[in-house]
Design goal:
Layout lengths: L3 H6 L20 H10 L1 H28 L2 H11 L3 H4 L2 H8 L3 H11 L1
Helix pairs in contact: 2-3
């Protein structure tokens, strides 16, 4: 995940990221990235795919989910996609991701049993 909008618009990010496991970060300037991408057409093509798959697609799906699904539907889909999520992530983090209060998450967990 990244904040591509603030990166390309050269503004401060409104996002905070909490890392849940060991991670690798890549840091670059917009000028260096553009220079690298423009070297060869294949890098431009791969970058477009990467940006679509890692940012636009995920963001679009998340926004649609928050706008059109109930909390129960988001919870059920999360469990379908990540069945072991509660073994890896704290409940308050899952509640935040689902856009619900921790108490609502507890209620959803109890109702799904």
């Amino acid at each position: 995940m990244d904040d591509s909008v603030s990166f390309s618009e050269k503004t401060g990010s409104m996002l905070n990221f909490e890392i849940l496991e060991d991670s690798v970060f890549y840091v670059t300037s917009l000028n260096k990235l553009n220079k690298f991408i423009s070297r060869e057409q294949k890098w431009e093509f791969l970058t477009r795919i990467w940006i679509h798959d890692t940012y636009y697609s995920a963001t679009f799906k998340r926004v649609l989910s928050l706008m059109s699904e109930t909390a129960a539907q988001r919870y059920d889909r999360l469990l379908d996609e990540y069945p072991f999520i509660f073994k890896q992530v704290k409940s308050y983090q899952i509640a935040s991701f689902l856009g619900v209060a921790p108490q609502t998450l507890s209620k959803l967990k109890n109702e799904s049993r």
